[in-house]
Here is the input.
Amino acid sequence: MCDERSHAVVLAAGMGTRLRPVTESTPKTLVEVGDRHILGHIFESLDRTGYERVTTVTGFEADQVRGFCDAAGFDLEVDFVHSDAYDSTNNLYSLWLARDRLEDGFTLVNSDTLFPAASLRRLAETDGSALLVDAEKPLGDEEMKVRTADGEAIAIGKDLSEATGEYIGVSKFGPAGADALADELDAMVDAGRTNEWYEAAFDRIFDAVDVGVVPVDGDWIEIDDHDDLRTGRRLFGEVTAE
Here is the structure.
């Protein structure tokens, strides 16, 4: 049996259009940062933290992602879910495709995020469900903001007027949280809301499920565009994701 401390879901279906021409024929998660691809940094952090299994949701250039995972050499059992609709849906739909693999709990990682392995370890060691959050970074329009009360997440979205910090794209859900999330994903996909961020489903379960927050401790970055890539290479270019 896998749970949120041993099973990770990595969403790697997107096209990375803001990084073109680098991503013209290369999935964003396989862009090189330092001595390895972004996905290599992520897998190393998962491996070092004691994860055993990774479900990777593929889309754009899926064969390249599969090839990397097969040859990566980490002590991880990797399986795949493929999205044929990667060019017309958002990551809510990608996560929904993996819904049958979530029931025992899981850790969720966006495949374009570099983060400290120590913060992932702290998240994994936290009981129940929790989000990794940066409470120090200034918040603008594009940040995925989180509002908290008494140490629990109570709202998440880019348009929050008041927020505690930014969700960095790494989270975990125990069995109860995973069940509630899968139900919301089902409801939203049934309603045709396939082109939304999965955080919209997070927001809908906060009243029913306690979801804590764990502060990220150290440098991290979500690589969306060329400025992010330059910053990521500066921060992570000579070291692994420690």
Notes: The mean pLDDT is 93. The first strand starts at residue 7 and ends at 12.
